Amino acid sequence: MIIGIFLIGTLLISGGLFFNRNTVVNYSFLIIYLALLWSFCIHELGVINSTQLEFFKPDSLGILLLLTIGVVSIPALWHGYRYIATHEETPKSRGLFFAAMIILISACAVAYISNHIAVIWIFTEITTLSASALIYHHRNIRALEGVWKYVFICAISITFIYIGILFLSLSIKQAGIEDLSFDSLYANASTLNPFWLKLAFLFIFTGFTAKLGLIPMYTAGIDAKDKAPAPAGALLASVLMNVGFVGIFRFYAVIARTPLLPWANTIMIVAAVLSVFVATVYMTRIKNIKRMFAYSGIEHMGLVILGLAAGGIGTYAAILHIVLHSFVKPSLFFQFNQIYRVYQSKSI
Fold this sequence. Notes:
Blueprint: H1 2-19, H2 23-46, H3 60-85, H4 91-112, H5 117-135, H6 141-174, H7 182-187, H8 194-212, H9 219-227, H10 230-236, H11 239-255, H12 261-283, H13 289-310, H14 313-343
Helix pairs in contact: 1-2, 1-4, 2-3, 2-4, 3-4, 3-10, 3-14, 4-5, 4-11, 5-6, 5-11, 6-8, 6-9, 8-11, 9-10, 9-13, 10-14, 12-13, 13-14
């Protein structure tokens, strides 16, 4: 029930932010939202591993990332306030900026604890729409180019995930299962049809690489993090990438219970190594500091997937790396925002 209250509260607050023109009321809405977000985080911590509204189940990974987004959201909204205060913004653009931010944060938070692959798919699409509003905040030709690329690539990725879910449906149908929840998939993994499961993994993994920032769809986030305001870029480079990790991790956990595990590890290692290589090449040549941060995220996600594919303590290392990256990378974007105010340049 608390998840429904959280989602309804997010919609009401975002609507209030968008339609209200009073500055004090708008910032009061942000404080109320932070209280709502942290109440949601604390509640989910108290009901860990219990199913809610049929489609949600906060496990250890979900709670860890939920607490992470709770921490990151505080400086993100504060720096968003500082960004708006130091730019010539209209009440309408300010309201849209903060409404999109809180919808993005809420969609990521709920995706972390989703126990159904189709539900993760839905909230992943919501993050695309809210992130697009943030990328296009400046309303100039460069922002238009960035948001067009982001929407185009994310639309393809969402389609790939959907096709993967269809293949997964064929796999469970032959096993006599009708439930696509992760609990059901884990319990019946050994009975799933391996051919359809292979195809499902290929499409779902490829689709989520757009959010995670990994080969082959890593390009979605580069222009997005560069063109978006720095407080929004901080969210795109951390908590949004975690949505991609959760999507891959949960389906990989299904594959890990089948004989397809070595094959899946090979796919992931190839994608991870290529991602680290591409990021390294670009980072040695790039002069735009925000784009360098974006390529740095690709490198880090490559390392995370390498750890996950290694298994054992590598899985622990991957999750630890995700959490630490979620704290460090936003702080770099926040500090860049301060540097840009002084030098008015993104050039290293």
